[in-house]
Write a structure and sequence with these properties.
Layout: H1 2-5, E1 13-17, E2 32-36, H2 46-58, E3 62-65, H3 68-79, E4 85-90, H4 99-108, E5 113-116, H5 119-128, E6 134-136, E7 155-159, H6 168-181, E8 186-190, H7 196-205, E9 212-216, H8 221-227, E10 230-233, H9 242-250, E11 253-257, H10 260-266, E12 273-274, H11 280-292, H12 300-306, H13 311-329
Parallel strand pairs: 1-2, 3-4, 4-5, 5-6, 7-8, 7-10, 8-9, 10-11, 11-12
Helix pairs in contact: 2-3, 3-4, 6-7, 6-11
Length: 330
């Protein structure tokens, strides 16, 4: 989004960040001023003072907070900065019982506006009591060159963080069950997280380490999605799931948990939902059904959804929401 917003002549962009990251090389710097604030911890209150000093120097009209820690910082920075409009972003729809998320929910309702990437995320803040405008703007989906769908593939893929929210232990157990049925298939797990050792233990005990590959975090995820026979996501909750957006763009079949966030993308009549996302055998059955199914129009709903998620359209939606929220505050 930052790369696309740089093409506009009606926005002056500044990026304030605290750490380097694996995606930094993707950021263009044509019409963007980048400010790095070194920090030791996200929980150091001095971060707020550093951010406030920089904001007073830049004097922006809008402060858009993108990460959870920055949402908390922005609440306090906005308190002491006259004329600043604070817009918070939401890219999930549910959080575990944790003080950090409780605090963010209590502070976030005071944002001047909220941009969620899903209807469920918007509802999260309406139920929390947010009184300012809540917009829904989906994520950007980059177009992909589709491979020939007539080419048979024996690859089943999971891509995402290896965290409890993503329900990855059930995914891996389903992969193990299906691997024993179908010796012709290979399974790939892309991503990293706190559950990696536990998941590798499941595969090791099943004697399937030669069939189920853990490839960790990859920059070239699109190549794997494009070549997958099926992409699997059994998340308990999401915002707007980037991996599934990319899978739709790549032309892959998808097996997904039957949650509102997935129905928002894939449609109410999508045939490859897993109704019981806690049952690995049920998941394995649906994956096999997807593998055996022929060409269909099952993805038409999702394809129509991502048609409006081009970089140009999403950047325009953000720019329009910026203007609207600043006008509302004035």
């Amino acid at each position: 989004m930052l790369n696309e917003l740089q093409k506009r002549d009606d926005i002056e962009l500044h990026l304030i960040h605290f750490y380097t990251g694996v995606h930094d090389h993707l950021l263009q710097n044509i019409n963007l001023k980048i400010h790095r604030i070194p920090v030791r911890s996200n929980y150091d209150p001095r971060n707020i003072l550093s951010l406030r000093a920089l904001i007073r120097k830049i004097q922006p009209d809008i402060l858009l907070s993108w990460l959870h820690a920055c949402d908390a910082y922005s609440f306090f920075v906005r308190l002491g900065t006259a004329g600043l409009t604070w817009i918070m972003t939401e890219r999930d729809s549910k959080y575990p019982p944790d003080f950090r998320y409780w605090l963010r929910r209590r502070l976030g309702v005071f944002a001047d506006g909220i941009i969620a990437n899903s209807e469920k995320g918007k509802l999260y803040w309406i139920e929390a009591g947010a009184a300012r405008p809540c917009f829904v703007i989906p994520n950007i989906v980059q177009p992909h060159a589709l491979i020939d769908s007539s080419i048979a593939s024996n690859s089943v893929v999971y891509a995402g963080r290896l965290e409890p929210q993503k329900n990855v232990p059930i995914v891996v157990q389903a992969f193990c069950a299906l691997a024993k049925r179908r010796p012709d298939l290979r399974f790939t797990i892309l991503g990293d997280g706190s559950l990696r050792s536990e998941l590798q233990g499941i595969v090791l005990r099943a004697g399937l380490s030669d069939r189920i590959d853990f490839l960790g975090f990859r920059q070239d995820i699109s190549a794997y999605l494009s070549k997958a026979a099926v992409v699997v996501s059994l998340s308990h909750h999401e915002g707007l799931p980037n991996v599934l957006l990319e899978s739709v763009a790549a032309g892959s079949k998808i097996v997904a948990s039957n949650i509102p966030e997935h129905r928002e993308l894939l449609g109410p009549d999508y045939p490859f939902y897993v109704s019981n996302r806690d049952d690995p055998i049920a998941c394995a059955d649906i994956v096999e059904m997807a593998l055996l199914s022929g060409p269909s129009n099952a993805m038409e709903f999702a394809i129509s959804r991502i048609a409006n998620m081009t970089p140009e359209k999403i950047a325009a939606s953000y720019a329009n929401s910026f203007r609207s929220m600043v006008r509302n505050i004035e």
